[in-house]
């Protein structure tokens, strides 16, 4: 079974301002609440100005992992301003806040992403309450329209561009061996990983390279589409625990863990590894990703992200205590060993 959800995608320099009003009009929306994080307020203001009379307000209060009180306030503002739609401008955190407004109010969402998180292409929402992050799937939170503007990402620092890009590659990698993957999803994931890993060295060399920025957003679109179509495995589960329980930063954690998760899963998923190998131009995918992160100056160990050795057994216990689909059974010893290697930042080795 393959489902292709109806979403319009516009990609091009300047599209955030030039295309968002037209997307709103196509959806019949006349009073849009624009949400963003505090750092994205300037860009969000430009989008709000472009909407003109169709803007019901600007709410630049998105925060990482969508805390419940932040969601409550945004929903109240959407109701008070009698918004008939929402535009989320920013990274996964801003899109996540837009999704909570959509979930609670039923308002349609337009996403204008400024990172490569891919959240804009998925029906997955997340909410952090009492220190724990809950996620769920609901078709109503999937943006109806996504406007990718490479100019918005020019300000994304190289370090965050690289880790956010590898976060996208993680979606593609796990989609390739997901239990619900399809031939079309596999093609999408492979092409997404290819586009992203080719764009990252170029934009690291010249962060203002608009062509590379555009190719990275194209990669993010495809990797996000693959994420939205499938159920993620061990890698995403580990990152969820490390982010949720220990507060490690999202994209950086994905960047560190991915080579080790793939080294563990590789023997069970030869076809997925062949596809990723084609995308990256290598026959050692875990090493190639570890090497790419190192060459582009991204963190390569959980220690560098602030995890302590004492956290490792706790993280391993939490990760093994939850159900998730994975192509290779991962027992407590396997997860402990994987986390230990990721903690140290050792060169990843495929273990048969
Ligand atoms: P983010 O949105 O928190 O952004 C990271 C930082 O980058 C923030 O400080 C932000 O202000 C800044 N930033 C964003 N765009 C910028 C730009 N163009 N220029 C300068 N600074 C910029 O982080 P993220 O990695 O995009 O998203 C992570 C969040 O998204 C997590 O909460 C994660 O769980 C969620 N997520 C959800 C899904 C899903 O399908 N639901 C998918 C991926 C990620």
TrEMBL record:
Keywords: NAD, Oxidoreductase. InterPro entries: ADH_Fe/GldA (IPR001670), ADH_Fe_C (IPR056798), Alcohol_dehydrogenase_Fe (IPR039697), MAR (IPR034786). Residues 162-343 form the Fe-containing alcohol dehydrogenase-like C-terminal domain. Residues 8-150 form the Alcohol dehydrogenase iron-type/glycerol dehydrogenase GldA domain. It holds the Pfam family ADH_Fe_C. SUPFAM superfamilies: Dehydroquinate synthase-like (SSF56796). GO terms for molecular function: alcohol dehydrogenase (NAD+) activity; maleylacetate reductase activity; metal ion binding. Belongs to the iron-containing alcohol dehydrogenase family. This is Maleylacetate reductase. It comes from Streptomyces phaeofaciens.
